[in-house]
Design brief:
The structure holds two protein chains of two kinds. By secondary structure, chain A is mainly alpha-helical. Chain A contains 15 helices and one strand, in the order βααααααααααααααα. Chain B is built from 17 helices and 24 strands. A six-stranded mixed β-sheet of chain B has the order 6-9-10-3-11-12, sandwiched between helices. A six-stranded mixed β-sheet of chain B has the order 18-21-22-15-23-24, with helices on both faces. Chain B has a four-stranded antiparallel β-sheet with strand order 2-1-4-5, covered by helices on one side. Chain B starts with 12 loop residues before the first strand and ends in a 6-residue tail after the last helix. The N terminus of chain B is likely disordered. The chains are: A mainly alpha, B alpha/beta.
């Protein structure tokens, strides 16, 4: 075939980075819309801080969900598992006299174990993930009601509640910003050095600096807005840290590459010598772990273990991932996309509540947005053919 | 073998494609291609992979809608603008693709009339459907009185062999009143006998004035059946000739753009000591309890020889080797030794660790992750080599990938191109690169040149020679007898589930191999 112009570096991720830009544009439009509709109260720092905290739980679940969907699976159990883990923690601390650290350890371990079991069932027994996790969803719903006997278990110890409700001090916020910006530039320089060492083409310095500066501005802007209210909410810090780790896991380590390969073509991955079963199990363990973290944040924020906690949260997590460009067919998408998707979902929730739109409308709108996002995904794929 | 004599068709033209140009992002697939097809002729299109044959067909049958390409299509001298395959089919242009598009769980009759069942107010008339299906099957040579291969229209397609499925596809096309029938590599999965049957049927269709566009890599078939041949190269029309004016070597020369005197670069190898041994290997049939796909097979391979594995379809070759590789999920017994050491392989991971790599016959299904880049596919089996503590080193990945792109002469603008955008030959090279990156001691190639053009085949053969030189044990499984005879030093001949014999190349020819395979003669 005769080649015209091919831009090598853009070839691969171009399709979904375009989607991410489209998502950011949509997000800005949403922001403007809600600001206008609420006569400016949406954009106030108090509300933005609130919005950030609201999205933390969806964001945490969505990072785990991103890996699951990329691997070509689905996890419908995260919502009720989150409720169950929160409930166990609350019951443990209020009724059974566990201290806070034991409780957190038990909660995280519980998430991992559930993931291990679900993953093993899916990998070794060849059960469809959809059915396995759908069943698990019901099981945890029942288990939650059983453990906390259908009541609200409260109040929880102060230190624990801190995890869901506290704000990081303003100075610490700025320290985070400085460290983040420092790392940003460090990695940029490092990459350039390494590229030069291996004699690969290096992107122009000005482009790299411009890019890093843009992200630095975003970080500064974010910290400034949060500090204008009470500082960065702790759950948001947790979410950001986790999503950075997950991005790293997905894109820089062999495990992540294997997950993409399995999602892209399970059989080919197997023939290439990838241990498909083991990777699948780890993916579900990570998702379970994220449910654990989200369960802790949720119960801490509510200062209670509640029977309704986490209900329908899997829908939000899946929607966030899909809106963020993670393809349901597997093998395509980025963790950062899921995070943007989580911002979209939280913005819809928050904005519509601010406008005093009735709850039933909120469900309808979110459902419609999810379907449109999937349609977008499919139609953009058809165009590529 | 039945002789088919090309019947000169008239000069009446049924189909004309004029200056077709089709551009994909970054690639010009077709450039001012012209194609003129005479009514009632069999018109072959030849070209290497990536020459633009499939793209041209997709333009013709409406997969690429009018407006996404430049140029004009005339059917019966009227310009047509198809915006879907459905419209093209209504006009009488029906194509049968490389991958068959039958629904395996439906009956033959249901498949033939899929989408246009005889009905009244939406209610399907099953009796009429089966009656008509039977008539159509007769037209394609099944169910005629003197035919041995009878098929009940009520049979599920899944129970038919590939050859019969192909015929059902043709019947399905006829049900749509096809006037121009497009066959894309129709014989790639057929046995010699089935090819003969197909050739007869195409000849019969020609007598009924049905025009046929025939795309094939197998030039012998083209010479045997076609009236005219059009050669494409690099997205351009090279020439259209009447079959009597052209020879096989002319076609090859026009396809490749240079002389290819020898199809097989045979080199003299000096076999050393025995390095790879398989003893009493048995593979159970995972679908039928108590049955065996491969029964008690033993053989050995020495350093410095290419072993060809020949045998009929369904002989269990693929199952044997994918089982040795740890990828075939069925119980197996037997022992495998490499350099005197007994291996215990439970998964492909184990096999690769022990220096064995098996490249599958189905690139798209088992060989490559099509949505991933060349780089990501190349390093997929060697992730431990390009990482430290699980942390990927992109620079090492790029360096290694480039090394194999250079070595295998893979044609690509960049390592970051998705493999789905490569031609078959280049995809196969990526797969081979992936295997070689693991530095295997034993490389098992299952149908390494299936669906690949002449030029790329030649390069792959040369790579095999280089590998043997470097001390790699190369085992080549192939249904292409010419290839097995052209490249192997020793040939293992398989019957159904058993090893029938081992022949040194000096004593082997087509007849000897076929006799052993079919059990006429044993060694």
């Amino acid at each position: 075939m005769s080649e015209i112009a091919v831009k090598p570096n853009k070839a691969k991720r171009a399709s979904f980075s375009f989607r991410q830009y489209a998502m950011i544009v949509a997000l800005i439009i949403l922001f403007i819309l809600f600001t206008v509709m609420t006569k400016g109260s949406f954009i106030q720092t108090r509300n933005l801080s609130n919005l950030a905290r609201q999205m933390a739980i969806t964001g945490v679940l969505a990072t785990g969900m991103a890996m699951v969907i990329v691997s070509g699976n689905i996890d419908l159990s995260v919502g009720t598992l989150l409720g169950f883990i929160g409930g166990i923690g609350a019951a443990g601390m209020v009724w059974w006299g566990w201290d806070m650290y034991t409780t957190i350890a038990v909660q995280l371990l519980l998430g991992l174990t559930v993931g291990l079991i679900q993953g093993s069932i899916i990998a070794y027994l060849r059960m469809p993930a959809f059915i396995t996790t759908l069943g698990a969803q019901l099981i945890f719903r029942g288990a939650t009601l059983g453990v906390i006997r259908g009541t609200t278990v409260a109040p929880l110890p102060k230190g624990y509640v801190y995890l869901g409700q506290a704000y990081v001090s303003m100075t610490l916020g700025w320290i985070f910003a400085v460290v983040a910006i420092g790392l940003l530039f460090y990695f940029m320089v490092n990459k350039r050095k390494s590229n030069m060492k291996y004699k690969f083409e290096v992107k122009s310095l000005s482009v790299d600096i411009l890019k890093a500066s843009f992200y630095s501005l975003l970080i500064i802007g974010f910290v400034w807005i949060m500090n204008n209210y009470k500082g960065i909410p702790l759950p948001v810090i947790i979410m950001l840290a986790l999503s950075i780790i997950f991005t790293f896991v997905a894109e820089k380590i062999t495990f992540g590459r294997s997950v993409y390969a399995i999602g892209g073509n399970r059989e080919a991955a197997k023939y290439a010598g990838i241990n498909v079963n083991r990777i699948t199990i780890i993916v579900f363990m990570l998702s379970g772990l994220m449910s654990g973290v989200a369960g802790i944040i949720m119960s801490a924020r509510l200062n209670a273990g509640a029977p309704q906690a986490g209900l329908n949260m899997e829908t939000d997590a899946i929607a966030a991932a899909v809106i963020g460009g993670i393809s349901m067919t597997g093998g395509i998408g980025r963790v950062s996309g899921a995070l943007i998707g989580a911002v979209v979902m939280a913005t819809l929730d928050n904005g519509m509540s601010m406008m005093n739109i009735q709850a039933f409308w909120q469900f309808i709108v979110k459902g419609a947005v999810l379907i449109i996002a999937v349609w977008f995904d499919i139609s953009s794929k058809n165009k590529q053919k | 073998m039945s002789e088919t004599v090309a019947r000169p068709a008239g000069d009446e033209v049924i189909l004309r494609m004029e200056s077709i140009t089709k551009i994909f992002p970054g690639v010009k697939a077709l450039e001012n291609v012209d194609l003129t097809v005479r009514t009632g002729s069999i018109h072959a299109i030849c070209g290497e992979n990536g020459a633009g044959k499939s793209t041209l067909i997709k333009v013709l049958c409406g997969i690429y809608a009018h407006g996404t390409y430049d140029g004009k299509i005339f059917l019966d001298e009227t310009e047509r603008m198809f915006s879907s395959t459905h419209e093209a089919e209504k006009a009488g242009i029906v194509s049968i693709h490389q991958e068959l598009a039958l629904v395996p769980e439906m009956s033959v009759a249901e498949n033939i009339f899929l989408g246009n069942q005889p009905n009244r107010a939406g209610l399907i008339n099953f009796d009429q459907m089966i009656r008509q299906a039977d008539d159509l099957l007769k037209k394609v040579g099944i169910n005629s009185l003197n035919s041995a291969n009878n098929v009940n229209p009520n049979t599920k397609v899944i129970n038919l062999g590939v050859g019969k499925q192909q015929l059902v596809e043709i019947a399905k096309a006829l049900a749509k009143n096809a006037r121009v029938l497009i066959l894309d590599e129709p014989t790639s999965a057929l046995t010699e006998n089935e090819v003969d049957v197909l050739m007869d049927i195409l000849d019969n269709l020609r007598k009924k004035n049905i025009t046929c566009i025939y795309i094939s890599h197998k030039l012998d078939e083209v010479i045997r059946i076609a009236d005219d041949v059009t050669i494409l190269r690099d997205g351009q029309t090279i020439d259209t000739k009447h079959i009597s004016e052209i020879t096989k070597s002319d076609i090859v020369r026009m396809m490749v753009g240079r002389e290819l005197t020898n199809l097989f670069p045979r080199e003299k190898h000096n076999p050393g000591e025995v390095a790879f041994e398989v003893k009493n290997y048995t593979v159970n049939n995972p679908w039928v309890a108590g049955k065996k796909l491969v029964n008690n097979i033993s053989f050995n391979v020495r350093y410095g020889e290419i072993i060809g594995i020949s045998g009929l379809m369904g002989s269990g070759r693929t199952e044997l080797f994918s089982s040795i590789y740890g990828a075939f999920e069925a119980r197996s017994e037997g022992e495998v030794y490499l350099e005197g050491k007994k291996l215990n392989i439970k998964s492909p991971t184990d096999a690769i660790k022990n220096g064995i790599y098996y490249l599958t016959e189905d690139r798209k299904k088992y060989g490559l992750v099509l949505g991933m880049s060349i780089l990501e596919n190349s390093t997929l089996s060697s992730l431990n080599k390009v990482s430290k503590y699980g942390l990927l080193n992109t620079n090492i990945e790029r360096t290694l990938t480039q090394k194999f792109i250079d070595f295998l002469r893979t044609k690509t603008p960049s390592q970051l191109v998705k493999v789905s955008n490569l031609s078959g030959g280049n995809q196969q090279k990526v797969a081979i690169g992936k295997a070689l990156m693991t530095q295997p001691k034993v490389l098992i190639l299952d149908e390494p040149t299936r669906g690949i053009d002449v030029g790329a085949k030649y390069e792959i053969y040369k790579i095999m020679n280089q590998l043997v030189e470097q001390g790699v044990i190369v085992i080549m499984i192939s249904s292409d007898l010419e290839e097995v005879l052209g490249m192997s030093d020793r040939i293992l001949v398989f019957g159904i589930g058993e090893l029938r014999g081992s022949v040194d190349i000096s004593e082997a020819d087509q007849e000897v191999i076929m006799n052993i395979a079919t059990g006429v003669k044993s060694v």
